[in-house]
Structures are given as structure tokens and as C-alpha cells.
Design goal:
Immunoglobulin-like; 4 domains; globular; mainly beta; 6-stranded antiparallel sheet
Length: 641
């Protein structure tokens, strides 16, 4: 019997040893920890000339980007792929972040090998990785680092696709395009990196929009560097700092969590950096925000863009503005403001459910704001790629200066599709209750649906939730009443994309009607659904593909690549041979005393467990409280009782 060598991201052979060594993910991924959470890594060993072996999950260290692992391997030549995934900090589905391919290495019997990685992280990845779902040329990881939307080709709507837009999250009248030969790190293609690179080492190009302005260009000073980013001047000639104007809002104004401050800055050369710092944090470091130039004026981000404002208390705060020009001259000014960080609240939103409708819908929102209500807006965000609703590209339904606020949603004027209806409440000083950038709605209490808000000015545990409603306009296949066979082909295809080796092991229908269909268009039901379960015994991995009602405004079908609710492991017979739900109901009626569904219509369940040759599909039925009356393998159909 041939012995296995030990390919170790940790040293050792035989059973995996306790972790003694780690490797760290590329710096590009490390910089993303502010915008990505729960980073995970899997190792994929590829023999030379062979196919990739099953992936092995690695153990993440406390720093979030170091990983350790153990892979047994036969002697031979290999490469190792490390596949990284993570969840956007703003919420949403897990995304592919990058594939890191090692150099070729050899494993010798009895020895441990440690692969080397000299190639850069591939953020687009291989076919099927899903690294660029919107096909704009920019990978998920880079989109998140640049503040763009991985599911929208033109995140800021300025007419330039994200892969060619050097500022894909900032809409400008003239887009900041990447020139021929340039990149996101060197937008003008002059060979000098921008100083505010989203990843990698910062450069010294003071104006990355203009190739004629470069630290590598010869200027009038006769040097090989345009050190002050002004070809007409020399650094020794420019001793004047930038001039800082009066900010807006002005001194002594009250700032809320979503307030922004603009500042006119002028200089005889070019301003290369402008910051706004909130001084006097009660715990931790002062919050520094980097201002950007928009149409000639420098503007701060909203205060909550940088987490940490929960270290400040309400009341007076000193704000320091600082600007530096290309010659290194710096100007500073300090302004007194007052912070008022109080969260507006939605106290009610009616009706409780909307669902599929073609008739106008009246939405009423009750809201309150301690600092005084400024307005209540209602938005409609259409579901896009991967089932996410992007508030940055939502449509304003209406606005009201008072509460209660009433809005009329007219489906006849909307495109077919699934929409998330949500309110935004703004107070008089700039606090706003609004959803995260790419929320994934979750069930709320008492039938409500809720999403998380992006109010980061208070501890996360105190951040409020925001009520939302789901609206289905026109023909949406995901919410059509369906039998099992109606959805089976799509379920097989969806599972194959996640794990081609996962076999169909279970089909569950909750709320099966007398016609064998589940009313997926019933927006009042949180129970009705079709669940298709798949299992890969080699990887011990379960995949669930589920169709839900509009009460759950997520993707339909919903695909869970690591499902915990799949218990069956034996594969069903050929899916094409499975009897459809009406036939299953008929078979049940022939063997029991019940001719139709169970009494609790919303809870009626039919579970396909196994096919017995040419006989009728053997099924397990459960009563209206979901108590199973048999366990697989099932040999006969149960009675309605």
C-alpha cells in the first residue's frame, strides 16, 4: 500500500496536528476587512495534469486573514488554489473574493511541503467562481474596496462601467475614466500610482486624472520629477499653503449621523489631500475622514461611513480640517460643531403584507425623530443579481414632511419584477434611518419584515431595524403556484452550479393544495414553500434550493450552499421518474382515508423520500404540526391522521 506524503499548510502527517503555523491572505484582501466580514478560505489541491481534488476548509486566525490547514497528498507535483469568500459588511449573500494560485511544488513521501505564492490574487477567478457577476470587468473584492456595487455594472450611474471608472462609487458630470494603459491604481496611465490607492502601495501622482502631471515627468524646474504636481512651478517657488474657506454647514451647526460637510479649498498649485477629523473621542482614536473633490468643492463622507462615532457623546465637538498641496504645504483650521446622534424610528408600517398585485397599494408610515422630523420618504428597490435590493439605485415613490405619511404605489407604472418597499426617515440635523447598501431581508416579528439599518453612530447592538414590504409586479416565475415537477428542472440546475456532485435526496412541499400546487404567490404565508435537498457524501455537504412566498423578499429560488436542514442522505431515483405532486396526493388518498390535503392547509406537507422501482413514489406526510409519522426508508403511505 502506497503511503501518503503530507502536504501541510501546517507541518505534520497522519491525523491533522494542532495548528503550529499559518499563512496570511494577500494584502489586498487584508485591506478589505472594513468592508467584508466572515472571510473564509478553502484549499484546492491540483495534481499536475489532473483535476482538482475536493476542497478543504481552512481554519481562520483571530486576525481575520491568517489561515491554517492540513491536506494529505500522494507524492507528486501539484499546485494549490486558495479560494476566499466573504460577506459584505453592509449585508448580502456570501461573495467570491479571490483565487490565489501557488507556484508548482513537489511532495515527497514522508515530507511536508509548504507552497509558495508569487502570483497576485485573482479577484475574477475561474469560470463558475462568480467573481464578476455584473460582468463590468471589476471583481467583487475590488468593487467593495472602491465602494461600488458588485451586482451593478455602473454603480454610480454616471455612464461609465465600473471596470473603466476610477471612481465607480462617485457620480460626476465627467466620469473619472481609466485611460488606455492605466488601471485602478494608475488611472491616467502615466506610470505613477495615485496616493489614495484602494489596495497596494500608495503612489506619488498628485493628479491621477492628468497624465501630464506626474512625479516621473520633467517640469520647468529641470528635474525628473514634477514634485509639486504643477509643471509650471518648482517646489521652492510654492511656499503658500492652501486657503480654506468657510465650511457648510457653518460653525456651531448641529451635525447628525448622516450629515456631510463641504469645504472650499483653493491653492496656486493642486490640493493633493484633504481630511476632516473629529477630535475628542471618549475611547479609541479620533475619527479621520478623507474628503473628495466634487465639482470643485471638497466634501466629507457622511459621518457614519467610518464606524467609531459611538465613541463620541452628544454635545460640542471640535472638527479639524486639513489640506495639503503638491509642494507639501499644509493648512489647518478648526471649527466648533455640536453632535446630536439620535436615531429616528418607524413605529408602524401598513399594510402588513403587499405581495403580488396589479392594483394600487396605499402604504402608511408612522415615524418619529427626537431632533425633529424633516421628512419621510418611501422607496422601491428592484431585486437584482443574486437576489439583492440596492437602495442606491432605488426609485423614490414619494416624500412627506409629516407623520403619518401616506404613499400610493402604482404597479401599473413599474416594470415586472420583485421590489422592496422601504421608508427612509430623516430628522432636522442629519440623522437618518435607512437600510444598508445591499440588504438581505429577514423575517421580523408579528409578521413584519425587517432589514438592518446603516446607523453606525451608536453601538451595533443598539442599531435599529427598518420595516420593509415585498411587492411583486407582473409575471414573476418565482412566485407562481407550482407543483414539484414545475420547479424540479430549475432546482437541479441551481444545485449543480453550487456542487455538481450533490445528488437529490429530498423534496418537501409545505402547504400543498388539493391540486398538488403550493401557492407561492401567497404573501401572507411564512410557511408555504418548495424545498429541494441535495447531498454530497464525499464532501459531507448539503445544498438546499427553496422557493418561498413574497413574505420573504429574498432571492427565489433561494440557494443555500451549506444547508443545515437536509437530513436525508440516500439519493432519490432518477428525478425524471419522480411522480408529480398530484399523483402523490392520489396515491395517498388510495391508501388512506383522506382524499385531499391535510386539515391545516398552510402546514400540509409532502416529503418525497424514495422511489421503489416502477411503483408509486414512497412519501412521508406530516400532520399540521409537522410531526413526522414515519422515518425513511418508508414502505407505505401514511393516513391523514
Amino acid at each position: 500500500m502506497r503511503k501518503l506524503a503530507c502536504l501541510a499548510l501546517l507541518a505534520g502527517c497522519g491525523a491533522p496536528p494542532a495548528p503550529t503555523a499559518t499563512f496570511t491572505a494577500p494584502q489586498r484582501l487584508s485591506r478589505a476587512l472594513s468592508v467584508v466580514s466572515d472571510v473564509q478560505a478553502e484549499a484546492e489541491l491540483v495534481p499536475r495534469g489532473g483535476v482538482a481534488q475536493p476542497r478543504v476548509a481552512l481554519v481562520r486566525g483571530d486576525d481575520g486573514v491568517s489561515f491554517s490547514g492540513f491536506l494529505p497528498a500522494e507524492p507528486g507535483e501539484y499546485t494549490l488554489n486558495l479560494i476566499f469568500t466573504g460577506v459584505p459588511a453592509a449585508g448580502g449573500a456570501r461573495l467570491f473574493l479571490g483565487r490565489w494560485r501557488s507556484d508548482a511544488f513537489t511532495v515527497i513521501e514522508g515530507d511536508a511541503a509548504t507552497p509558495r505564492f508569487t502570483d497576485a490574487l485573482d479577484v475574477i477567478g475561474a469560470e463558475g467562481d462568480g467573481g464578476d457577476p455584473d460582468q463590468d470587468g471589476l471583481g467583487n473584492l475590488d468593487e467593495l474596496l472602491l465602494g461600488a456595487d458588485p451586482n451593478r455594472p455602473d454603480s454610480d450611474g454616471d455612464g461609465a462601467v465600473d471596470g473603466r471608472d476610477c471612481a465607480p462609487a462617485t457620480a460626476e458630470a465627467t466620469p473619472y475614466l481609466i485611460r488606455e494603459g492605466g488601471s485602478a491604481l494608475d488611472c491616467d496611465g502615466d506610470g505613477a500610482r495615485r496616493p489614495d490607492v484602494p489596495w497596494g502601495s500608495p503612489g506619488m501622482d498628485c493628479d491621477d486624472r492628468a497624465p501630464e502631471v506626474s512625479p516621473t515627468a520633467t517640469d520647468d524646474c529641470g528635474t525628473a520629477r514634477d514634485e509639486d504636481c504643477n509643471p509650471a512651478t518648482c517646489p521652492v517657488d510654492d511656499t503658500n499653503p492652501p486657503t480654506l474657506g468657510t465650511p457648510s454647514p457653518g460653525p456651531d451647526a448641529v451635525l447628525g449621523c448622516h450629515a456631510q460637510v463641504s469645504l472650499p479649498i483653493t491653492d496656486e498649485g493642486r490640493v493633493t489631500l484633504a481630511t476632516m477629523t473629529l477630535l475628542g473621542a471618549s475611547a479609541g482614536a479620533d475619527v479621520v475622514t478623507y474628503m473628495t473633490q466634487v465639482d470643485g468643492v471638497w466634501v466629507s463622507p457622511v459621518l457614519n461611513q467610518y464606524a467609531g462615532l459611538d465613541g463620541y457623546t452628544a454635545g460640542p465637538v471640535t472638527v479639524r480640517f486639513e489640506a495639503t498641496d503638491g509642494a507639501g504645504n499644509t493648512a489647518r483650521s478648526e471649527v466648533q460643531y455640536s453632535l446630536r446622534l439620535e436615531v429616528p424610528e418607524v413605529t408602524s408600517m401598513t399594510p402588513l403584507a403587499v405581495g403580488a398585485t396589479s392594483a394600487p397599494v396605499q402604504i402608511t408610515v408612522q415615524a418619529q425623530a427626537p431632533a425633529g422630523l424633516a421628512r419621510v420618504d418611501l422607496y422601491a428597490a428592484k431585486k437584482g443579481v443574486q437576489g439583492l435590493y440596492d437602495p442606491r439605485h432605488a426609485t423614490l415613490v414619494g416624500t412627506s414632511a409629516a407623520s403619518p405619511a401616506s404613499f400610493t404605489v402604482t404597479p401599473a407604472s413599474m416594470e415586472d419584477g420583485e421590489y422592496l418597499l422601504y421608508p427612509v426617515v430623516v430628522d432636522a440635523v442629519g440623522n437618518a434611518l435607512e437600510p444598508n447598501t445591499a440588504p438581505v431581508p429577514v423575517p421580523g416579528v408579528n409578521g413584519d419584515l425587517e432589514v438592518g439599518s446603516d446607523y453606525l453612530c451608536v453601538p451595533m447592538a443598539s442599531a435599529p431595524r427598518l420595516p420593509v414590504r415585498s411587492l411583486v409586479v407582473g409575471s414573476s416565475g418565482g412566485y407562481t403556484p407550482a407543483t414539484m415537477q414545475d420547479l424540479l428542472p430549475a432546482a437541479l440546475a441551481a444545485a449543480a452550479q453550487v456542487d455538481p456532485a450533490a445528488a437529490l435526496v429530498q423534496i418537501v412541499g409545505f402547504g400543498v393544495g388539493a391540486d398538488g400546487r403550493v401557492r407561492l404567490d401567497d404573501a401572507t404565508s411564512y410557511t408555504k414553500r418548495w424545498l429541494f435537498g441535495f447531498y454530497n457524501p464525499t464532501a459531507d455537504r448539503a445544498v438546499a434550493v427553496t422557493w418561498l412566498t413574497p413574505a420573504y423578499p429574498g432571492p427565489n429560488p433561494n440557494v443555500d450552499p451549506n444547508a443545515g436542514n437536509i437530513t436525508a442522505e440516500e439519493p432519490l431515483s432518477s428525478p425524471a421518474s419522480l411522480a408529480d405532486t398530484p399523483d402523490v396526493l392520489a396515491a395517498r388518498a388510495s391508501q388512506g382515508s383522506c382524499a385531499g390535503p391535510l386539515t391545516g392547509v398552510d402546514d400540509d406537507t409532502v416529503i418525497y423520500l424514495q422511489q421503489d422501482g416502477a411503483a408509486v413514489v414512497q412519501v412521508l406526510t406530516a400532520d399540521q404540526y409537522w410531526r413526522g409519522t414515519a422515518q425513511p426508508p418508508v414502505t407505505e403511505l401514511t393516513d391523514c391522521q
